[in-house]
Amino acid sequence: MRISTTQYFGMNVQTMDDQQATLAQLYQQLSSGVSLATPSDNPVGAAQAVQLSMQGTTLSQYSSNQNTALSSLQAEDSSLSSISSVLTSINTQIVHAGDGSLNDANRSAIATELQALRNQLMGLANGTDASGNYLYGGYQASTPPFSVGTSGAVQYSGDNGVQYVQVTSSRSIAVADTGKAVFLSSSQPGSSSVAAGALSNAGTGAIGGVTVNNSTDPTNNHQFTINFTSGTTFTVTDVATNTTSAPQTYTAGQPIVLGGGGQSVTISGAPSGGDSFSVTPAGQASDVFANLDSVIAALQTPATGATGQANLTNALGTALTQLQNTLNNVTTIQTSVGGREQEIEALQTVTQSNSLQTQSNLADLTQTNLTKVISQYTMTQYSLQAAQQGFSMIQKLSLFDYIGN
């Protein structure tokens, strides 16, 4: 194949141009620290870089969500600890109120203490997080969830909405619990049915706690009333089914079987005809504010004679059972909150590791490897210099250089 002088010169010039372009590209990488300035530099790498960049952005958002969720849960955890402390103080006061040596004035003072603790509990129920959002308002996070109505009773104006935060591509975590769940509900496991005596009772009957004989009996979730037709006879009514038993003979301290036999209760003292008692499932008597109002009213009522003492005993026993159910409910929710906190902390570790790996992979694709590029730059520079020197020598040669010889 015959190569003309023009072709030869053109090939050499093109080679040197290419080397100079390569040097310019390598110099740009060295000066900017970026090895992938345009997609044309590395089309495959550019596509991978786009994917890694999107993945990094997503992981960054999940990390931000995790921080937000953890902050909210930590605020609720702290609030629930304070609520438990107040409820424990209330329990101590109610137990103290049962001291037989106290008089009406002493019990009235305890009622005043309970009123202050009730107000403190309501303040916690209207607590906010670091952003000023109400912890227990559900979706109504901008308005106080609890308020005092015209009757003096506490009302819940929040909703049942549970706020979730997306913390990974496949996991959303509840970052709050509603006021209804915390203050107006009762966790079934560990809670007890609530026994109570009517405030209008004229006898000296005092009802004890509920004994569970069969925890699987479906009637345990029914409400029952025990109505004394005389001082010696009573009937048991299942409110859920509206069925009443045949009259039964009353013996003080003897268990009274409820429903299908899953529960029983004892009554001591001497009830009068017309007196009534009730057994209510924990979930139906779980408004902590209403329960506090009831025991405060009972302590403010003079305990006159044996009947007054019996009614006070019933009120205090009822209040203690209700309060224990509330404490159990708060503890259950706080345990759940703690579990969610631990899960987020574990996810934070995984997300941070994935984010660092993504950043490393993206850097490998887009950032200049100084050792490698400097080596390439030096080699290309030497090659260009050699080509330039060789071409300079060759272009001086001609046929006339040989004629004289």
From TrEMBL:
Q: Could you tell me which residue ranges the Flagellin N-terminal domain spans?
A: 10-140
Name a single GO cellular component.
bacterial-type flagellum hook
- Keyword field: Bacterial flagellum, Cell projection, Cilium, Flagellum
Gene3D superfamilies in the record: f41 fragment of flagellin, N-terminal domain
Q: Where in the cell is it found?
A: Bacterial flagellum; Secreted
Would the keyword Cell inner membrane be found if you checked this record's keyword annotation?
Answer: no
Q: Spell out the molecular function terms from Gene Ontology.
A: structural molecule activity
Q: Which Pfam families match?
A: Flagellin_N
Q: Which GO terms describe its biological process?
A: bacterial-type flagellum-dependent cell motility
Write out the similarity annotation.
Answer: Belongs to the bacterial flagellin family.
Name of the protein described by the UniProt record: Flagellar hook-associated protein 3
